[in-house]
Batch of 4 targets.
Target 1
Amino acid sequence: MPRGGKRKGTPGKGYTNRTDLGMQYTPQDAAGMATPAAGGVEAPRQAPPRPPVYAEDIPNLTDPTARPTEPISDGLAFGPGRGPEALQNRDPRNMETMKLKKWLPLLDPYVDDPETPDSVRSLIRFIRAS
């Protein structure tokens, strides 16, 4: 006997096709009025067409620089230009890690717990090392 119990259909005999697929249903509310799904709301407007983008519009490596007065090493710790303090988008993870250090006394017992996942142990060690 196949898994799942006894078969209800007759082997070798096909089933009839669904007849409800060709019917038109109009959603109605309790009062019998057509709902917005039935066409009571106008279709959203299309967005205005975007201007085409051509390959010439995208800069490539052979194009002249857009910042001719700025050295290529600007923002690095060596070479001409400003140093790393010039970078405005600093990594916020360092500050967040410092904030997490105050919670280390509560997290330390989990480092030695055999049921603690390795990812949590690694996180606690990372916070401790920062």
Note: Helices lie at 93-100, 104-112, 118-129.
Target 2
Amino acid sequence: MAINPFDFANSINYTKQNIMLDDVAEKDYNSFIVNRQLSYFQDTVLLSNEMNFHHQIDNSLKYQFLLNTVRKRKRYSKWIKPELVSDMEVVKEYYGYNNEKARQSLSLLRPDQLEDLRKRVFKGGRKPSMVTGRNAGNNN
């Protein structure tokens, strides 16, 4: 039976029970998912970085290290999602920027400025709410 990567993260963070009992479980261990989950918290970010630095060691050693060094605590967070692609496309089209410049500029713009850019870039069509990336609740 395959073990979910989040089960490994839960055992490291909260239950403190060793669930890596055989070679099959060692193959199921996904260090990227576990390290990413641990990287959201101040008390575990350095441990996660250390495991990323030592990527070549066996999965069982990584798991044992984290299991025995991370203090027991409930750690839940939402994963950071990328910004709306449509907003980046609006900035790219209006200013003529590439992806990197548009991403940097997007963090500097306020929501009202983004809305103004959306209106200026909008070329027409049936539903203007499609450009903003929002659901069309009412047709104006």
Note: The chain has nine helices and no strands.
Target 3
Amino acid sequence: MNCSLCSKDVPQPRIDEGYTICVECSTEEKVSCHTIYPHKTGGYIQVVSKEASENLNRLDRRGTGTSKSAKYYKPFIVKEKEEPKVYRSRRCTKVYTPYDTALKSVLDYFDEWGYEPTLRHLRQMNSSGEIPLMTRVKIQDVVTDMYLEPTPRSLVRKFNKTI
């Protein structure tokens, strides 16, 4: 079939759609679309005219096809990665007080001063570098167990009250 205006051949798919005019002679405007996002995902497309599409994309901050960026967004800049520093392992050369010596020292302090001052003394020994953290934790557990454990005298008093 030929075009009714210019007598050129009209492609068969266009004829199947019901057109009798070729694409060059057509006065119909091309359709465009606008993407609508009702939430973060699952957007859909609304078919509109080219003019309406340009206007909607101008108004919508997620609009595509324009070079205009959002008013308050900061530009995204990718910095080049720096080369990582070379790690050189070093052995620990720090000399700590042995566990047994530290335990004896702390227990003597506990007998003289009591529970809370002993914990402060233990923290001081750790922060000054005299003992490592694991030693502090172990000794603190021993001291706390001693503090919470009832003395024989209190057990005698408790036993005598029940009789």
Note: The helical segments are 12-16, 50-59, 99-113, 115-127, 133-148, 152-162.
Target 4
Amino acid sequence: MSGIDIKIGDGKGKKNFAEVTDDNELVVIASPYPPFAPQKVRPFRQYFTIDGIPDGSNDMGVDGSVTNVDFYIPATDGYDRYITSLNILVGYGTSSVPFKFADGTALTNGCRLLYESLLGEVDIHEGLKSNQDIFRLTDDPVTSLWELRGVNAINDYGYLMALDLTTISGQYGIKLDEGTTQRIIMRIKDDATAADSFNIIAYGFERFK
């Protein structure tokens, strides 16, 4: 049985047709510039906050040892959210070492970073208890220069860590579907007040119709 012979033209009468190779592959050329089409995405940046809104409290240096405290990025109405990276800041008063949390002792219960949906919860990390636990969220090598000066004031210390979510959840990161209860959460399960500054900024984009 023979196949159907179809030609795909440019639609402008210029006799430009799509080409198929002997291996039955359609020949395409990646354009070096974007197409003339309506913009369907916009940049997204927001702190993890205690109520999920941009103006909410983003200070995660709280005591969640008795009652856990959630800071999160939620889904929203009207847009799909794609979270591609997280930037974590931990600041403190005196020089520290990786096995501590901030400049205090390591946490016992730690902090839980997770994705939540109606299907349940998925851990990104089940128990961040020390500085080195946070370091290990990234693929970047940690050197002796990990500790920064002047994070909150001239004599303060701290560090920044960037987590690329596209390495664990595909090229678009973690998707929060429009109009759902999906969210990415940092759950404080311990006394994290040793950190003078402890917050996370989420980066990504929102896609709309």
Note: The chain has a mean pLDDT of 92.
